[in-house]
Amino acid sequence: MPTDPRLDALPDEVVSPITPAMLAGGRWWHEAALGPWPAALDRGLIEPRRGYRFRPENLALPLALGPTRARSVLDLGAGSGSLMILAALWLKAPLALGLELQPEAVERLRRTLRAYPEIDARVVQGDLRDPGCLRQLLDALGEPADVVVANPPFFQPGWGRSSRNDSVRLSTHAEHGDCGDFLAAARAACAPEGRILVVFDADHLAVLLARAGERDLRFVGLRWIPDQRPGKARQPFRVWVELTPGPGGAPLRRIDALPDHPHADSPPSST
Ligand SMILES: C[S@@+](CC[C@H](N)C(=O)[O-])C[C@H]1O[C@@H](n2cnc3c(N)ncnc32)[C@H](O)[C@@H]1O
Question: How far apart, in whole angstroms, are the C-alpha atoms of residue 163 and residue 264?
């Protein structure tokens, strides 16, 4: 597919597609029967040739959101902007705001957003743990966000053989705050009836839920992406967790596996 001329990728960058085909061949999207994939996403986005690039599980966001609309979207730790762009187009949200710590990623995302003139999209460079930065976000939003999306790093700093590439390491390892910090920022910027959607590693889910409870965020629902590796078939790999402001303790409403996946033929029933 020809690249949109507005996406001026540099020689050390690539234009990544944003298509459901990236996840389980796209069959899951067909079965989800949520309507057409937003055509504008064909334009893709600019990413580093060597560095962190968005992962296929991000594409399951519309499934977690469902067929609904919103006025504003906030993406905490926006990276190359896949969640922000996908959420804004899916929800037909006129306003989308991204916050990102890494200046090069911010500059790149600003170039990507030139290819999406239908969204009033802005990116703020800063640290979500900084109260001044959160105030700046709220000022830019005008009112708290209807929908907050985030893909926080889930490895503790120094865990395993972390990448020497800064863009990768700062995305995978919580060197500048963990999921608790992401949730605190989400809580501060989310409307009282708003929705917070977080994609996380399934093995670390208990930590995410504990941090959510500590921050007075109520669990609403969960969908998981099954592992594609043969030895791990049927096991959750990544999870999309929905939270909302409010005290915890509410019963689980929904736990679903992604539909139409080769390993998802017998998902646990809803509770
Ligand atoms: C796992 S990556 C996700 C990037 C993108 N949202 C995606 O899904 O592809 C986490 C992102 O959070 C950013 N980040 C980490 N700590 C942050 C902080 N304290 N303030 C703002 N952004 C932060 C990282 O730079 C990285 O871009």
Answer: 32
75-84, 216-225, 260-269, range with the lowest pLDDT: 260-269
Residue located nearest, by CA, to atom 13 of ligand 1: 77
What's the whole-model pTM score?
0.92
Tally of CB atoms within 10 A around 188: 17
d(CA 56, CA 160): 23
Helices (H), the chain: 27-32, 61-65, 82-90, 103-113, 131-141, 166-172, 179-189, 205-214
93-144 pLDDT tens trace:
999 999 999 999 999 999 999 999 999 999 999 999 999 999 999 999 999 9
CA–CA dist 186, 5 (Å, integer)? 34
Residue 250 has pLDDT above 60, yes or no: no
Cβ(105) – ligand 1 distance below 6 Å: yes
Q: Whose CA is nearest to atom 16 of ligand 1?
A: 176
Domains of the chain: 13-257 (3.40.50.150)
